[in-house]
Amino acid sequence: MINSIFEAILQILSDTSSRGQHGYDAVVLLALLVNYRKYESVNPYIVKLSIVDDEPTLDGMGMVLHQALTEYNRQYKDKEEENQGGFFSTLTSMVGSMFIADAEEKLSVQTNEAILLALYEAVHLNRNFITVLAQSHPEIDMAATSTTPTSTAPTTPLGTTPPALDNLMVEFIVTHMMKDFPMDLYLRCVQIIHKLLCYQKKCRIRLHYTWRELWSALINLLKFLLSNETTLLAKHNIFQLALLVVNLFNMFITYGDTFLPTSNSYDELYYEIVRMHQVFDNLYCMVLRVSTNTGQWKEPASKVTHALVNIRAIINHFNPKIESYAAVNHISQLSEEQVLEVVRSNYDTLTLKLQDGLDQFERYSEQPKEAAFFKELVRSISLNVRKNVSLNTLSQDVLLKEFSTIS
Amino acid sequence: MSEGSLSIITEGDPELFIDPEVALKACQEVLQSHDLKQKGDGDVPDVSVDTGPASSSESSTSAKNPIPSSMTRLHKPRPKDVSSSQQSSWLLRLFESKLFDVSMAISYLYSSKDPGVQAYIGNRLFSFLDSEVDFFLPQLLNMYVHMDAHVGDAIKPYLVYRCHGSVPFSLTCAWLLGAYSSDMHLSTQTHSRGSKLRKLILSDELQPSARARGARGGHVSGPVHVSEPRSVHVATRRTHQRSKSDATVSLSVTPSSNLKRTSSNPRVESPEQPVRLAPQREFVKSLLGIGKRLATLPTKEQKTHRLISELSLLNHKLPARVWLPTATFQHHVVRVPHTQAVVLNSKDKAPYLIYVEVLECEDFESSMVPVRIPETRVRITRSVENIAVAAESGDTRTGTFSIVPNYDNDEDAWSTDDLGMLQIPEGHSCDNISQFSVDSITSTESRETVYIQAGDIRRRLSEQLAQTPTSFRKDPEDPSAVALKEPWEEKVRRIREASPYGHLPTWRLLSVIVKCGDDLRQELLAFQVLQVLQWVWEQERVPLWIRPYRILVLSSDSGMIEPVLNAVSLHQIKKQSQIPLLDFLIQEHGPQTSEGFLSAQRAFVQSCAGYSLVCYLLQVKDRHNGNILLDSEGHIIHIDFGFILSSSPRNLGFETSAFKLTTEFVDVMGGPDGDMFNYYKMLMLQGLIAARKHMDKVLQIVEIMQQGSQLACFHGSSTLRSLKERFHMSLTEEQLQLLVETLVEGSMRSLTTRLYDGFQYLTNGIM
Predict the structure, then answer these.
(1) Is the Cβ–Cβ distance between B498 and B410 less than 8 Å?
(2) What distance in Å separates the CA atoms of residue B100 and residue B77, rounded to the nearest whole number?
(3) Are residues A258 and A120 both part of a single domain?
(4) Does residue A89 form part of some domain?
(5) Could you report the per-residue pLDDT of B472-495, keeping only the tens digit for each?
(6) Which residues are CB-contacts of B374 (< 8 A; sequence separation ≥ 6)?
(7) Which of B5, B239, B256, B336 has its CA 20 to 30 A from that of A209?
(8) Domain annotation covers residue A348
(9) B458 and A CB contact within 8 Å
(10) By the CB < 8 Å criterion, does A358 face chain B?
(11) Coil, strand or helix: which one is B656?
């Protein structure tokens, strides 16, 4: 720690030829150095990494990360293709999936933890890196984040394409409803969406995104929580997640005017809520039941009941209106357009409650919540690196020679 | 003439300096001696001519060179020379007169069969302003490529001289030569004069002479005098007329004192200087490469996405000694705001429009290339350690968020601490234990409940969305509509604010359309004709309005176009607003009696008259609404001159009317009986009379370009004759008036225009 090799690492990264040779190792080494006893003492590497603003160097770092992650993606894809094919394997996997995908990794490619850690630290510590990353290779961000559902995804959107991030989140929500529920990742995912909405509200940004997909994904998530209540409750505080999801809807309901792209999308929000009212009704029953009992979940459940007030108001307001519309016009099944019409003409008689703090979010901080995770991660990485580093491949004099030129 | 630069240049050899006047006199002597010789009818030995012009030359070696060697060599006495001597003296009087301009020079260069006259004009080119000759560069080069050796020899010294002096000129020449040689048969093409000159230019042997560079060195310190280095060469060249090797020798022989001076100039890139043309060629190559790759992608969205990422890569190589050839001032390109680029509407090719940030400079070649300012704009570098501090102090930069709404622009607003700043501090200290824990959200029981109306939210939403009525909504199928509708001034301001170079006083924004897979030679021809017509109407003081836009031909299937600012196509207007043109103008400029509307209407009428004449004279076809723009002042502007003169799209024979005059147009002009409509017809008559007066200028441009060309617009044998006939030289003004009436009547009634719009709607989806 006294003899800093930070500058040397940067030099390797900034030069094309040395980057090709040692880039990967340099980045991994840097990631490890940054994590060296970082919770106990002042780590000079953290400070140094956070102030790097040399574009070629940061670019080089991005390039190394990009290559490593692309390689990882390629391996995953190969493996996936390998696993496909053959009638029998399809059949067995079908049967297997009938018993609900358990934790067992169907496709196990060793996640490249080291490189993900390096990406995390670069993004986390150096604000210039984000810009470099997003500007030079718009494709990187997607490649990077889509492979990281199993790690702690960096909490800031990496890319210039928020809709893409929304898509990613929706995809995650839809695809990870499994028995071994990754609660912390779901929390993070919903928090990211929340953060994006806060940003959009604050800056009046209207993304041309079909929010409907997000809404239906969120509603399905609630449905999943409800139907697996007992199993999930044994391990997780599902009310925290439910509260976040409900508050996302509250964001749309109360602040939709600041970031929805069209006036129709606000109508569609109501349509979706009314259409899926069963889910909200059930959720309300559930949280009401839990909150009236005494127990550890009483407090968090009651928060959800309060948060549901506007959604319930909407359902209670529009459902009778729609029924009477159907009755008056003698239609048994209303079309979407007709329901939207009812919604549009009945806004004015609906009063909502303004909820506080909807647009405030928890800032990401590594300490203390994530410290344990990173400790574990760093330990595993350093073990791995030790195992794989083999100095035998390089004869000593070559090694010395190279060290002399690194300066 | 500035003293500073003079002292520097003359230091080496004071004798070198000869005024342009002296040079001109020398030119005349050449011609006179030529006359003399003709009178002598071959009796005078060829050598005798040599003594003439050498008298005023600077060095004795050059004086001994046989001067107009080719002239004397090739000239064979013929019987008609007796009469031509008379002709020549008349010619000389004309050439010496003040009226003799570049246009006339080009015309005589083309039509005169006399090598002496051609040689004289070749010399005279040096005495015109660069910019004046540049306009006729396509003509000069086409003559060089396709006409006989005499013309080529007469032009070449001038071309070579200019190439020595200017990188932009060199490259423009090379590109045009390539394009105009492309119609030749392959076997002859590689050995043709044009290809050879092109190779010579691209080999970059035509370096500026050390003397000229010395003069450039002077530019940096003292004021500039452009004509200075020029006159040196007029003198040198005059005695070395035909010999290329001589020219290069004289240029490479340089006094060492000057060389030193050059090297003392801190900015001379490298002693070997092989990079003179390379940066710009690379720049253009990468732009064209992007276009080619875009064409392979199926959807507009993919194209747009790809375009933006490719351009962002291009940014890494900027600033560089590159320029945008469609611009009119000297500059260096510093940045391409890549997120602003758009793919334009086209069926199978992928033309795209980019905005380019440049810094104006005094001299493209000698001024310093601007230093790169990193994109990241490390305004305040904040690490984890000091983020908290900054947030606590309620950073004033929160103010910058007011400009954020163009979300596709300000990428770095996404970085960690900016998001953090969205938190309203409210006196909280922002340490790592969150004050904004979501758990506290619903603990509002103690507070007073605030109620809101759902109807209000919905209303606010539609009101806010309606607040931007003049901007078009985003359409992934037509990304250019929004980009083009934004007023130019606003766009400039927006991009300037976001640019790291924006604070520099010389910062300018330019835009350009890059076209791949399209032959722009016809466009260039149309530009020239339009430009001439515009000059003519200006000169004759008739208020017809047209907007020629600059064209850069890069090869026979690629090029760049200067976009027309503040204009969108009628198709886009119709698609976006869904109202008739008149209503759109009312919406944009105010009610029909308002000042705003009336001036827009006047602009509309004047431009309609201008373009009606252009369309009639040039027989511009393919006039659908996608090819007609409306600018923010109300002018219409025709674009896309892909079908002119003898060519028409798919030879359908549609569009038989003289020009496009739909009822919508007539409605804007106040109906067929209104005053404005009469004004329109009157303008057309005036415009036609003025154009007729200067018919030769137009004809000449077209005629020269016809040489050796395979372009569709020259198809058939009657192109030029028909063009000439459309000027109706034989008609009286009354008859012309009748003609205009007939043309207008015919176009108004024309079913085919309407049919053609229908046809376009069916085949291309253009309304």
Answers:
(1) yes
(2) 28
(3) no
(4) no
(5) 555 555 667 777 777 888 888 888
(6) A53, A55, B500
(7) B336
(8) yes
(9) yes
(10) yes
(11) coil
Question: Residue B266 and residue B252: Cα distance in Å, rounded?
Answer: 22
B649 interface with A at CB cutoff 8 Å: no
CA–CA min distance B401, chain A (Å): 6
Distance of CA B162 to the CA centre of its chain: 19
Nearest to A198 among B407, B411, B422 (CB): B422
- For the record, the structure tokens of A293 come out as 């009992």
The confidence score (pLDDT) of residue B538 equals 93
Based on the structure, what is the number of domains in chain A? Answer: 2
Q: What domain range includes position A334?
A: 163-364
CB contacts, 8 Å: B474 with chain A: 208
Tokens 């904040």, located at residue: B382
Contact between chains at B451 and A243 (C-beta distance less than 8 A): no
Q: What is the pLDDT of residue A85?
A: 55
A193 assigned to some structural domain: yes
Q: Look at residue B2 in the predicted model and tell me its pLDDT.
A: 41
- Which residue in B375, B441, B451 is closest to A352 by CB distance? B451
Task: Report d(CA B767, CA B760) in Å as an integer.
Answer: 7
Whether residues A307 and B442 touch (CB distance < 8 A) is answered with yes
- A interface test, pick of B461, B475, B499 with most A CB neighbours within 10 Å: B461
Chain A residues in contact with B383 by the CB 8 A cut-off are: 46-47, 50-51, 125-127
Same domain, A120 and A178: no
Indicate whether A195 and A312 sit together in one domain. yes
A127 and A255, same domain (yes or no)? no
**Nearest-by-Cβ selection for B375 from A131, A195, A244:** A131
Backbone torsion region of residue A295, taken as left when φ is above 0, otherwise alpha when ψ lies between -120 and 50, otherwise beta = left
Token digits for A112? Answer: 């490249």
The answer to whether B228 and B4 have CB atoms below 8 angstroms apart is no
A126 and A267 in a single domain? The answer is no
Give chain A's residues under pLDDT 70. 1-2, 80, 82-111, 131-166, 177, 179, 389-400, 403, 405-407
Cβ–Cβ under 8 Å, residues A124 and A35: no
CA distance B67 to B240: 6
Q: Which of B313, B431, B442, B450 to mutate to test the interface with A (most CBs of A within 10 A)?
A: B442
Contacts of B416 in chain A (CB under 8 A): 124, 127, 130, 156
* Same domain for A72 and A175: no
> Are residues B412 and A131, on separate chains, in Cβ contact within 8 Å?
yes
- Residue A78 within any structural domain of the chain: yes
Tokens representing A80? 């996936």
- Looking at the structure, tell me whether residues A285 and A245 fall in a common domain: yes
